[in-house]
Amino acid sequence: MIWSSLTTSRYYPLTLTTFWVEHRVWGMKPQPYHIVNILLHAANAALVLWLLRRLQIPGAGLAALLWAIHPVCVESVAWITELKNVQSTLFFLLALLVYLQFEKRPNSFRYAVMLLCAFAAMLSKSSTVILPGVILLIIWWQRGRWQRTDWWRVAPLLAGGLIMAGLTIVEQRYQIGRDSHHDATLNLLQRFLLAGKAGWFYLGKLCWLADLTFLYPHWEINLGSFLNWLPIVGAMAVTIVLLCLRRHAWSRASLLGLGYFALALLPVLGFFDLFFFRYSYVADHFQYLAAIARLRS
Length: 297
Hints:
Helix content: 55-70%
Number of strands: 0
Order of helices and strands: HHHHHHHHHHHH
Number of domains: 1
Largest sheet: none
Number of helices: 12
Distance between the termini: 45 Å
Strand content: under 5%
Structural class: mainly alpha
Shape: globular
Low-confidence stretches: none
Radius of gyration: 19 Å
């Protein structure tokens, strides 16, 4: 049922398989589950350091340390059921590192390992379907353009990502449909306003460590409120300015960071309905992967 059903739980089959193995080994004792999450998070921090150094990002050590100890990551590490976050991030980062090595010295073995890690990430949590977009973003930052070969190389990732995204959309709609009290109906303009507000919210929580909580108050997305339009207009203005100045190294670096941040948050910005939106449009554990971009020096 873990691999074949969309109704028993969220479709994270590899994560659920890990839980199945853990339950077989230590039953319902909570401590080992917590230890596994902590060890995976520590491994992720080491991989973040390795990745940032591989990309020659200044202040890689401090950035990795800040990400490792940042309070917004606590929820993903301390909450046992957020194994999907730490496990998927492990495979996500491994896939990125192997791809960068493959680009330097191409061979079929490295490419196969990259694909294996990438699909393991997607099967651990579907939000990692952003991987091909992140790869293409890094290529653009390094070379300034894409080649046809780049698209062929990420094509299997795009195909796998579309399948996993489709399964997740179906599963979320099923969960929402089962709840007669759930009202997740937003029109297109409201979704854009929500995306803008959520993006700035997550950035703010990374910079200002105040009033962090498991469940944030539910927002009202009012199209008639001028204040609700400011976040999305501001985000578009910043993006346009950086694109106009993209010939400058600092601007391209900023576009890399902001582009990754936006991509990593894309599945939870409101463009797609999530059952969790019944309670809140934002959550700290939603930005576990995205936080890597904004905590570099």
